[in-house]
Amino acid sequence: MYKIFLSLSLLLLSACTTVQPWDKDLLAKPSMALVPSEIDNALDEHIYFSKEASMGGQGVGGGGCGCN
Amino acid sequence: MRSTKKIRDKLTIASATLLQATSVTAAEAPEGAWNVNTAVLFYSENDGRVSAIEPVISATKETADGDIINYKAVFDSLTGATPTGALIANVEQTFTNPSGNGEYKIPAGELPLDDTFLDTRVALSGSWNTAIIDDYSRLILGGNLSKEFDYTSLGFSANFLRDFNNRNTTFSTAIGLSSDKIEPSGGIPTAFANMKTAKTGTNRDAADDSKTITDVMFGVTQVINRRTLMQFNLGFSESSGYMNDPYKIISVLDTNGDLTTALGVDDLPYVYENRPDSRSRQTFFWKTVHHLTEDVINVSYRYHTDDWGIDSHTIDFHYRYELGNGSYLQPHLRYYSQSAADFSVTSLTEAEAAAATSITYASADYRLSEFVTNTFGVKYAMPVGKTSEFSVRAEVISQVQNDALYPDLDSFIIQFGYDFYFDD
Amino acid sequence: MLLLFNPVYADYPTAPKFQLPTNQGVIDISQLQGKVIYIDFWASWCRPCKNSFPWMIAMKEKFKDLPFEIIAINLDKDKKLADEFIASQNINFPVAFDPQANVATLYGMEGMPSSFLIDPDGKLRIRYTGFWNKSKNEKEKAIYNLLNKIKP
Predict the structure, then answer these.
(1) Is B310 helix (H, G, I), strand (E, B) or coil?
(2) Most-buried pick from A57, B47, B212, C140 (CB within 10 A)?
(3) Contact A21 C49 (CB under 8 A)
(4) C2 closest CB neighbour out of B1, B132, B166
(5) What is the Cα–Cα distance from B234 to B282, expressed in whole angstroms?
(6) Which conformational region is residue C64 in: left (phi greater than 0), alpha (psi within -120 to 50 degrees), or beta?
(7) What is the mean pLDDT for each group of 10 consecutive residues in chain B (424 residues)?
(8) How does pLDDT run across B57-81, given as a tens digit for each residue?
(9) ∠ CA C46-B224-B60 to the nearest 5 degrees?
(10) From the candidates C20, C44, C46, C80, which should be mutated to test the interface with A, based on the most A CB atoms within 10 A?
(11) CA angle, B352 as apex, B346 and B358 as ends, to 5°?
């Protein structure tokens, strides 16, 4: 699984264009957050955790407007 | 800015919430004000099983120094009953309450359900997100506490993120530690001991037990282009300690498939389950967020595997359909499938029950078996004034077991939310 | 806990010249030669950018009798959003529009907002990335120091 993770991330890193700071207007929108509604997400995760045997995986991330 | 979330969710909701605006536009946000997100969720299952009401409140603020602090509280009030793992029988069944103080009868042909564990739960969490070293790195520290009458959980997490590549790439490393204590009604049952009839007390080892969980997660978020963002995470989790569900039992059947009658004095034909005292999990997670002309697609895939034999796949898909003037409609689809744990059973034979020891494992808990869960939902949100948002969300969750001896589950959610800014 | 690293240009390159439209006509930076100039690249979708305006307004007011100019260059792709924000502030300096990011590309930046301090000889002195309350005093001092170099 590590190999898949590593190769996928390296593949993506090489395939991407560098997006300039002024082109981050769309990424800055709340709708483009990795998790647009933390509350919905947390409530759902709790429900599925109580009914299923898997949990987590989401972690924290970047993205957004890249400001500051 | 980065979204923050504690790396693990547990029985307790323990997620640090996002800095800055979540579902409310940040354009008009008063500087230094608290962004408050509130919601109340109503949850209901089929056939007299669990119902719950869950109010949540979460407040986030950016300080003058650029730190982001968050506090969150969740209350859970549950009623109803949950399957114990015992099978439907063609005769009436009698079970003893976990406390040992009473009994309940289940008619022939009905699924045995127990309501002991249901109660009120409170979960509190807080997090602090600060720039560290220089303005390209951030450290997020989080803590959470969850309490219900028979369960306490305390956890901490630390997450370090660094931006590279003109802030188009973010690497994150996170660690989480949590310690849970369970004090079940009636104490910790002896593995594979028989449930006793009500008058004779219980087969119990101790009043309480505990477990610890350590999580590590590595992640990379990558801006693909002006409209697309992707995230990959690799997570590792080690749990150790008491992992059983003290309220779950397994029916013991004779060679005809009926409940065994070869019982000791005051024994009932059910034994307490037993799970390994350690669990090693790995997850691989991939998410893509993509902005179309107006709308946004958010789709993710998670693969989970562990040393209990459970492999699962989760696909989660949200489509945000902009209605104009800031309101939107968001359908949601989720597909989940898991394989059964190695020790997942529907019942035990008399021989298996007799041979079982503290280092053999068996559980009839429907949550460890092989099943598929499908969810379909939709959310509607609309702005209120310049900086607030009201939302309503409804979802239908359908869990279908592969083995018909396990109970299927249908549940329905409706949630109302209100987000606003509070200037203090 | 935080070290802010604002790169000082080692060899003081010449600040790129430009002409850009404002809501009151065209602004040409070469006409401001001889003054200390603070250029700020911002957008309405960038919260720290908007948070920096009260400080910039205060700086312009504080140094209003001195040869000091601020030019805010807006990078919104939708001018309406920029105009909405401008209308909500009492801005006492010109706001120019660079929606194709031509001037932004000339100056080069790593994040939003990005500000550039230019000396009276038209040379780039310091580039600031991001807007932090912590660095307000440091920036004010840098402006003040450059103003002191101008011979009366």
Answers:
(1) coil
(2) A57
(3) no
(4) B132
(5) 7
(6) alpha
(7) 34 25 41 93 92 96 92 93 94 91 92 84 95 92 93 95 92 96 92 88 80 96 95 96 95 95 91 97 97 97 97 98 95 98 97 92 97 98 95 98 95 97 88
(8) 999 999 988 899 999 999 999 989 9
(9) 40
(10) C46
(11) 95
* pLDDT tens, position by position, B288-338: 999 999 999 999 999 999 999 999 999 999 999 999 999 999 999 999 999
Q: What is the CATH number of the domain that holds C63?
A: 3.40.30.10
Instruction: Label residues B258-294 b or e (16+ Cβ within 10 Å = b).
Output: ebbeeeeeebbbbbbbbbbbebebbbbbbbebbbeee
Quick one: closest CA in C to B20, which residue? C47
The shortest C-alpha distance from A41 to chain C (Å) reads: 24
DSSP assignment letter at C142 = H
Domain count of chain C? Answer: 1
Question: DSSP 3-state helix, strand, coil percentages of chain A (rounded to 5)?
Answer: 50, 0, 50
B132 in contact with C, Cβ within 8 Å:
yes
CB atoms within 10 A of CB C61: 11
CATH superfamily ID and name for B34-422: monomeric porin ompg (2.40.160.40)
In one letter, which amino acid is B86?
Answer: A
Query: What average pLDDT score do residues A7-24 get?
Result: 78
Domain boundaries, chain B: 34-422
Asked, for residue C3, whether it belongs to a domain, the answer is no
Contact: B131, C133; criterion CB under 8 Å: no
Domain assignment of residue C11, yes or no: no
Query: A43 and B39: CB-CB below 8 Å?
Result: yes
CB-based contact A57 B235, cutoff 8 Å: yes
Q: Is the separation of the CB atoms in C98 and C73 below 8 Å? A: yes
Q: Parallel, antiparallel, or unpaired: how do β-strands B347-349 and B371-384 relate?
A: unpaired
Kindly state whether residue C6 falls inside one of the protein's structural domains: no
> What residues make up the domain containing C66?
19-148
Question: What does each C-alpha distance from A37 to A15, A42, B20, B23, B156 come to in angstroms?
Answer: 29, 9, 12, 6, 22
Phi, psi of A10 (to 5 degrees): -65, -40
What residues contact residue A8 under an 8 Å CB cut-off, 6+ apart?
B232, B286
C34 lies in some domain = yes
Which ipTM did the prediction report? 0.89
Q: Which helix (H) or strand (E) element contains residue B267?
A: strand B267-272
The tens digit of pLDDT for each residue in C42-85 reads 999 999 999 999 999 999 999 999 999 999 999 999 999 999 99
